[in-house]
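Protocol step 6 of 9: fold each sequence in the batch and record its structure tokens directly after the sequence line. For illustration, a two-sequence batch is reproduced in full.

Sequence one:
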Amino acid sequence: MSADDGPAGELLGRVFLTRVIEPGDDIGGRWVREFGVREVVRRLRGGGVALPGVSEVRWTGLVARARQAEPERDLEMAEGAGVRFVRPGDAEWPGQLDDLGDARPLGLWVRGRPSLRVWALRSVAVVGARACTGYGAHVAATLAAGLAERGWVVVSGGAYGVDGAAHRGALAARGATVAVLACGVDRPYPRGHAALIDRIAGQGLVVGELPPGDHPTPSRFILRNRVIAALTRGTVVVEAAHRSGSLSTARAAQRLGRFTMGMPGPVTSALSAGVHELLRGEAALVTDAAEVVELVGDMGELTPVRRGPVLPRDLLEPAVRAVLAALPGDRPATAADIALGAPTTRDEAIARLYELQALGYVERHGDGWKLTRQAVMSVRTGRGPR
């Protein structure tokens, strides 16, 4: 079967190009947009005059890759590993990836049964440091579990640290999670997460741009992050140093007009310095899943109003609270002095003082009134008198 045989040829052509053109290569994306998949494949296989925008040296390298590409074999390998290839125009293709323009993936290799398009519609990225602290791992797992419990899909990169904690948090809540890899989806990386990635594939989705068996490189990790940002409604960064790769996901989200959020950490922690820098810019500070959903969710998905505890003093009538506040904490005061401090009349102050006496807040000392010991303690502890 050749790359010119109708829809099947388009499929083989894109599979071929994933083996030849690196992820995020906007020059290759422009070729596909301007000349079409079949023509780009034909030119690369022919090895003649270079397509525009690349040097002869780079063109020679691409042609050498093209000679090694075997799209039929890649599809056979993928099928054997339970992996499918999703391309632009397919029913499962997430339309939001088109926001990447010429840097849009040529296609995605997908492992797992759910629909990527449907899951991506209600998803949030949770990313952060690989060498995270215990605090970072706890926060990421708790956040992911909270999002999963609210019906949101947690997307991350399958790496050590925050990524792994986020995936585990979602899985523990029996929720949905997607791992976007910088290698072939049939070749879990890092090796130490092979069991976790297999579990994600069984319960969720594992996604990548690279064909079966391909390996990760430092640049592929960075380029993978744009897919995480584009797939989701927003990105939350949990712990990131100033040079953390996870910050590239946040920057990509900002460029794409997605929500960018950060979970604050100790100001003394270098692993939170990058997050704090984001928060000084356009990122929103969030502390839990409810606050994330308020930003990325639909109208009406609001964070519950949060207040401090209601103290017994808060239940007093305003006039009674004013009289109570006018009493000095260390000595008795006359009703006249208290009335001046309230401010109110002497008779009104006396009436309120007797009310406070019945509630255990004040006691008489001759012609004066004084806070009870319990009332003084309530000011310090927030508890009312017993």
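Sequence two, same batch, same settings:
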Amino acid sequence: MDSGETYWADRAALEWQVELGVSDAVQDKPVDRYALDAAKPKPKAPVTPPDGPPPSVAPEEVDAVAEARRLAAGAIDLAGLATAMQGFEHCELKRGARSFVFSDGQAAARVMIVGEAPGRDEDRAGKPFVGRAGQLLDRMLEAIDVGRAHGDATRAVYITNVLPWRPPSNRTPDKAEIAMMLPFLERHVALAAPDILVLMGNTPCQALLGRTGITRMRGEWVEVLGKPCLPMFHPAYLLRNPIAKREAWADLLALKARLRG
């Protein structure tokens, strides 16, 4: 059969298959489609264009104590220290307090009293020790002829707290809050430069002495920040436990003798 006859025979066979419904042509050998798929090149991951959004970066954690230390060291006077403390944003107590409570009394006084933190009355007034405990403190100081209202620095006292903002429900400050505000307190003592420190209650003892247990510590002179220091009961404790006023009176007499010595 010549080539012409072969063409027409093949065509006739193809037309006959189409009429029978054949739609796909197959080869004379089977094809492994899985092998073909494996041989295909893998699609490349899309590349972010240069002007696309930058990768997200986790915010760097701030060392609150280091930041407090930096701000405190930059304060050259008490007004500057108060401004630095008010600008300190890492103590959550600031967000819930009404007032910033810095100090009261005479800054040049020989005696500096350190309390715990503002209470409700102090938060409203913006001054430390103005509630019932503050009134009792004033009477205690008057009994040994000193006080925050005296114009004479030799008979005046200067008062502050470990924390300048009121804790919710007057709770005790926690260790983290004390630690982050300690650099400010240490700078406060350095700038006020008192002759004697009086620590009222456990919180200032924990902050400056590193220990608590005011019932054991009270009345015993120690040294802190290069100054003689007398731990005493907090006036609020004396209001709850009047029987302890006897020990408080003995501590006041010890303070009076130290001032005269």
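Proceed to step 7 once all outputs are recorded. Observation for sequence two: The first strand starts at residue 104 and ends at 105.
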